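re: that complex we talked abt at group meeting.

here r the seqs, copy pasted straight from the sheet so there may be weird spacing, ignore it
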Amino acid sequence: MPTSSPDFAIEADGISRSFDCTPALSNFTLRVSRGTIYGFLGRNGAGKTTALKIIAGLIKPDKGSVRVLGTDPFEFTTEDRQRVGYLSEKQILPTGMRVGNLFAFCAPFYPGWDQALVDRLLASFRIDRCKRIGALSQGAQRQVAFILALAQRPELLLLDEPASTLDVVARREFLDEILDLLRRGGPTVFLSSHILSDIERVADHIGILADGALKISEPLDRLKDTIKRVRFYDFNRDPGSFAVPGAFRSERSGREWLVILRLEDPAQLDAPLRSWGARYEIQDLNLEDIFVEISHH
Amino acid sequence: MFLYLNPQSGLPIYRQMFQQLRERISSGQLAADAQLPSVRELSTDLHINPLTVAKVYQMLEREGLVEFRRGQGTFVTAGRRPLSAAEQQKLIQPAVDQVVSEAIHLGIEESTLQRFIHQAYAHKLP
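got the structure back, here u go
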């Protein structure tokens, strides 16, 4: 079993997990450094929720090992559990309970409970603590669940599609809150989302899950700096057999090729271009473009 | 400080920030000895990750455009070291390449493009 490092909040090695005969994760390996905001992306059914549940210690992998804050989440003590905040994709809150009572009920379970934070966030999200949970909008229920996950002052915050039911303004407030926590030296945040523009704004590290394994795991800046779309044109003959090694995807249209690749330095195009006499144009890709190209591959 | 950042651009946020701050410093909008907002303030104002702001400040420092003064903050460097011709070219070349490609695409003659550049200089450095 690999030894665990204090630099990482999450370490998963060679995780496989199937449901019935369908593999959800196969040989999934992940490292999340402490102090980062890690955006975890993947298409529906790619295995994101399964991965999050394994990290949260809610389901057991068939194979592989997980360390969360240095400990196997299946051997978490109550104290260990208090260090990890988890917001599930479909949170279940007691709908008949009033907001204020729910927080009062939960507080005694957590020694690190931050009531000042609860009060501040309820006010800033404009949530009426006298209302029953069931009477709140979907978005406000989501915010309540988010505050619950934060109130215990976790070292690691696991958020599964936290903002999908929030409107644009509420999403912006939610992101600002996460950034604010980070500025105060707050938790490592591991979040999955379909809303790539949110991820693009706050995340510093990106993982893209496809076919049950991580295809990409690196800083967002590096991703945008190096994954490029290159259009090759002006070939001196029929470019049918033209190819760039290591390309994520290549597409031909007449006498042009469009290639998605990792471009560290344009000089790496010199070799494949030799003898073709072609020219090229490099295009930047945003996160959505990169996501589509990689999870399509 | 107002910066325009588009997180959904293919250009990473740190590059957008770096370009805008560099332009403000070299044009004198941010004068020598002017204090930049703290990493915390600027990341709050711009709703972005503080690590991004810290990274941009480090890049500006490496280029000699700002300096960190212990216990005080980040300031625009006074009497800063001029870049060598090679350093200048390395920094400007991508932008020149882009402008020239665009000009060729539009069928603009080299002499016409030079005239445009001349006018832009006159506008920015009256």
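couple things i noticed - The mean pLDDT of chain B is 89. The first strand of chain B starts at residue 35 and ends at 36.
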